[in-house]
Amino acid sequence: MVMGEIERDAQVVVIGGGPGGYAAAFRAADLGKEVVLIESADALGGECLHHGCIPSKALLTATDLLDQIAAAQSMGIRATQVSTDPAAMHRWKASILAQLAKGLDQLAERRGIEVIHGKATFTGSRRLRISDGSSGTLAFEHAIIATGSRPIGLPGVEIDGERVMTSRHALALHAVPKRLVVVGGGYIGVELGTVYARLGSHVTVVEMADQLLPGMDRDLVQVVQRSLQKHKVEIHLRTTVTEISSEGQSVRVQIAREQGEAATLEADGVLIAIGRRPNTDDLGLEHTKVRRDGRGFLQVDAARRTADPRIYAIGDVTGEPMLAHKATREGKVAAEAIAGQPAAFDNVTVPAVVFTEPEIAFCGMSEEQARAAGYEIKVGKFPFRALGRALTLNAIEGFVKVIADAERDVILGVRMVGAGVSDLIGEAVLALEMGAQLEDLAVSIHPHPTLSEALGEAAEVALGQAIHLYLPHQQRASAR
Amino acid sequence: MARDFKLPDIGEGISEVELLQWYVQEGDVVREDQNLAEIETDKAVADLPSPYAGRISRLHFKAGDRIPVGAVLVSFAEADEEMPQTRAPTVEGRTAVSERQRAEALRGPQAREEEAPQAVAESPERARAEKPKPQAERVLATPATRRRARELGIDLTAVEGTGPGGRITPEDLERLVRDGGRAAAAAEAPPAEAAMAAEQAPPPTPAQPIPERAPLPDFSKWGAVERVALSATRRQIARRMAQSLYTAPHAAALEEADVTELEAFRQQMRQRLKERNVRLTLLPFVMKAVVAALKACPHVNASLDEAHQELVLKRYYHLGIAVDTERGLIVPVVRDVDRKSIVELATELEDLVQRTRDGKVTLDELRGGTFTLTNAGAVGGHAFIPIINYPEAAILGIGRTQQKPVVREGRVVVRTILPLSLSFDHRIIDGADAVRFVMVIIRLLEDPSQLLLEA
Q: What CATH number is attached to the domain comprising B330?
């Protein structure tokens, strides 16, 4: 120890103040532990609050109004002077972020959690060094790593934040590029592409796989892709980016299709959204027993304990899916395990939502996954255009699909695409966690007229009991 | 992803096993729980079940090899890339819970017999073997039920669910606990840290209720009964005793010390100290002898940290003295016994015991003990098997000194005999160690001049 260095100690130290870290810290404090929370940014909230979930949803909602207003003509509403003020939109978004960050500070303070803004590196299994202006060491009984992830860059491509950017920059909304090329057709690229398309950019999405949102059910993606194309978004599938170069004020993007034909795209801005990597490489983990895999993810057991029994890891650093709500749940599990409770991350499903227009939401298994796992399945699909509320919302694109085990009628997965499905998937998650059967969904009364009816209706279709669809085979189905 | 199966730690101090034979070959596709090999430890021959379903890419040892715990035994090939991520939590959670089962399976046939009631009749689906089974068929249980299963130490894959669709209900779990006669199930559940966290609260704060066992009959059927509500202290004691006995495997060493010389010395000193208003009992002498023994056997002055697989050796000597009060058993702690003289100890004891009986001890005075003494001799008891004051490693019971005939140099003489009963946690202390520990105490009590030198 160096003279003048501050030596602290804590029962639990949480590294990272995002949705995983702060959840773990708050829960641990509520369970009676002395907690120190170390955050490298100036405010709590992590990627989610400042550069991800929250700002993107704010912008999506704001820009969605543009679409709604345009579509309102058919409902008899005329609006002629609609314009956008990006600076004002930015200010509104920033005020939300500030409010949420302040809320987190207050929650931390009320719980007596010491928040240190600095960077932490492990010097052993029970000690770490903090650089926060002063330097100091911290001895801990338990640590929780919640350092999150960062965007993967393209080799040889410099991110300048203006012409070549990552999601962080794209959310800062200084200017709306006339032509925007989005490299990567995953949910981040597609959501941000949607925002800019609505604001007037000509958006081109370049994706390596044979569909947007690779890995998600094709029929869900098709609905979204059609909608994007209606918004004049250009989509290049099975295409990779070979070079990006600046040409004065614009950017030149060289692309190559699978069959080899090359092309050049001219753009005013390029968004690189090809994935994220865990922040585990400069934590000093080599001084601990924590094990990382080849991609930098940390290996953990069900209670989120790493190979070093004093150190836990949660959130993006433990692997896919890299989603905030998974991090939050893992954070609570780790805190409870440290407090001696028999906690485990044994959730049946981590749901996922994509805020495109229309939205996508799903949990559990797809039909393909269920069959691959050996199940015989029943599937019930209910289209939004048969749903009263969807018509009154002027949002008839989309459907809800329920997949169940044919033998026991147990629900294995739910797929949704359509307006507002991000708010509907929660019921499906509960159904999966509880081990619900189709009848449980079908019999539960969903209020009318709401979009939630689609889930009950889809279950009825799977049972052969649909009312709002006529399915010929139902006539022959045995009475229940 | 490629996965390795490492030989799990099966406890009992076993650091390696001998591989007798493989039941599988490289390239075979195996089911989860399918037996992979036959192994032998020095206690038993057992089968080793597979933790994963998948194709075996490599067997790292051959028949006849000795395999150290933690060594990679079997490597599994890359799983099908279509394996859905959203299912990972389920498989992970189940594997973690059943690892303990796996480790127990290795303890040999006797242990497995005890496990049998828990591995309940197979669910109806499994009986219908003709249809190809969904790989890793999901266990149905609500989140609350899954948590309860973890608390009770029950592996959900072994439970037959009576709820809709084969769902495991909370009642299914409670039934398993009752029918299995499951002291052991309850023992596995609360990890050491939970017990430790819960144990620090002293009697006055409200304690959790005593865990339920089998339903009681209606006692009033056979005569008049009176029901007395349990006090908070009594509930606390009951909970702590159950927790201690069901967590630490108790074994006992029952010995006797010839304290004739010591008693003579004490009687001499008693008169002198009476003038200074100090009551001198045998207890301070026993405490000093105990501390000497603790120094000679440091792992008796310790606690087992199961969560970290470490033994916490304490370099301080704070002895808890069990005091019988109106409210029940309370254990105040005398600190730094190694640094206090017999007179200081006697003085402190008198004050402490009195204040304990009056209900005037502070919270702090009830915490921090490293070893406990319990004196049944005070009320005339002889030998008894005390329950360890968890999370300590052992407890010494002291009986009543009695004049007894013993044989010395071929002749029967009458000597003053003090019974000593040591209960110890057999996870940390072996029988021989326990006896050696008590022998140190006895040696010092039987020869006061040695006590003077070493205490």
A: 3.30.559.10
